[in-house]
Design brief:
Blueprint lengths: L3 H9 L6 H9 L8 H4 L6 H11 L4 H10 L9 H4 L7 H9 L18
């Protein structure tokens, strides 16, 4: 199965090394666009990079959802700038982007019970 990164890069004709940068800017919260260039040289966006990298390896949508559920609990996501000022990637945007490329986990069919004559 192809990963989110592979599918995204194929659709956008970009090398895999561009995935993180492109997805970061595409999913960055609108309120963060002004301050982001100032903070890029620092480790401020490390939790966001880790989230994008984890989602890049996903082959199913439920894997992306799991990473997004864990994201708020990253130790560096507790400060005011990230929580209230939304100086971070938007998990809603990331989820919407992933939904364009990945399928949900296939439903498990119930076991077939042989009928007794």
């Amino acid at each position: 199965m192809l990963t989110f990164a592979e599918l995204y890069c194929a659709a956008h004709h970009c090398p895999p090394t561009e995935f993180r940068r492109r997805v970061f800017w595409r999913t960055l919260h609108p309120l963060a666009l002004i301050a982001a260039p100032l903070l890029l040289p620092t480790r401020y966006f490390e939790p966001d990079r880790e989230l994008i990298d984890a989602c890049a390896r996903a082959t199913r949508l439920d894997q992306v959802y799991e990473e997004i559920r864990e994201y708020p609990f990253h130790p560096r996501n507790r400060d005011w700038l990230r929580r209230r000022a939304k100086l971070r990637v938007s998990t809603r945007r990331l989820q919407a982007l992933a939904q364009q490329f990945l399928r949900p986990k296939p439903a498990v069919a119930p076991p077939v019970v042989p009928s007794t004559p």
